[in-house]
C-alpha cells in the first residue's frame, strides 16, 4: 500500500531527508575536520531516496524496480569507490583551504544537498503517487516500452563506463606506477580525456529516459486511464536531473577543476622554476607519447583525444577546431593558453617555490 507523505510528488519529504542527512554530514566533517566521507555520504543519500520512495510508493512495477535498482547500484558503486579512494589518499586536496572555514564548508555541503536531490528527481517522481497511483492521477503502464529499453541500456553503459574509467585510472596511478610525465591514455582514457564524467552524464540521461514513459505514452493500455497533467509535467520537468549533472561536471566541479590545472602542470614541467632539473626529459610511453618535452606531449594528447565523448584518436584528431570546441565541448575555458596563462602560471609557481624555501 502506498504511503502519502506531505505531497503527492514526494518532493518535500525527500528534500527534508536529504537536508537532514547532509546537515549531519557537515557537522561530522567540520567537527572532526575530515573530508573522507563527502562523496560516500552523498552516495548513501542517493541510495536512501531511491529505496525509500520505492517502498513508500508501494507499486513494484518493472519500471519502478528497474529505475530504483539502477540508482542504488550506481550509488553503491560510487560510494564504495570514493570511500576507498579517500581512505587510500588520506583526504581530498579540494578541502585544504575550506576545512576550517565553516561558511565555505557549509556552502559545499549545500551544493551536495542540491546535487543529490535534483539529480534523484526522475526516480523520486516515478515512485510518487502522482505518477503511479490512479487515485492520485497516476497510471500503471506496462514495463518494456522503447524508452524503457533505451533507458536501461544507457544506464547500464553509463555505470560500466564510469566504473571502468575509475579502475583504469587507479591502476595507472597506483598499480603500474607509470613513468613521470606519462599521460593516461590506456583503455577508455585513450579515447576520452574524461570518460568517468561521460559515464556519469550518460547514466543520468538514461535514468531520465527510463522514467519518462508514463509522461509520453500517458495512457494505460488495459484501463485506458491517462496520467494527470501534473504528473506528466513533473516527469518531463525531471530533465533538470541530467541537465544539472552536465552543468555541475562541465562548469562547476568536474572538468574545470581537472582539465586546465592538469595542462598547467605539464606546462610548468617544461617552463616552470624546476624545468631545468631534468623534469622535461621524458621517456616514451605507450603507443602515442614520444615527445620528450612535457608541454609538447600534453598539447599533442589534447589535440588527438576527445574531451568527453569517447572517439578513436584517428577519427578525432582531423576534426575541425569548431567541431571539437562547440560540438564535442572542448571549450576554451578548459584549455591552458600558453600566451595568455603562461606568464601568470610561472610567476605563481616561482612565488610558491620561494615560500617553500623560506619556510
UniProtKB/TrEMBL annotation:
Top-rank lineage group of the source organism: Eukaryota
Cross-referenced InterPro entries: UstE-like (IPR010721)
Pfam families referenced in this protein's UniProt entry, alphabetically: DUF1295 (PF06966)
A GO cellular component entry from the record: membrane
Membrane spanning stretches: 12-32, 39-59, 65-84, 105-126, 197-216, 236-258
UniProt keyword Membrane present: yes
Alphabetic keyword roster: Membrane, Transmembrane, Transmembrane helix
Protein name listed in UniProt: DUF1295-domain-containing protein
UniProt source species: Tilletiaria anomala (strain ATCC 24038 / CBS 436.72 / UBC 951)
Lineage: Eukaryota, Fungi, Dikarya, Basidiomycota, Ustilaginomycotina
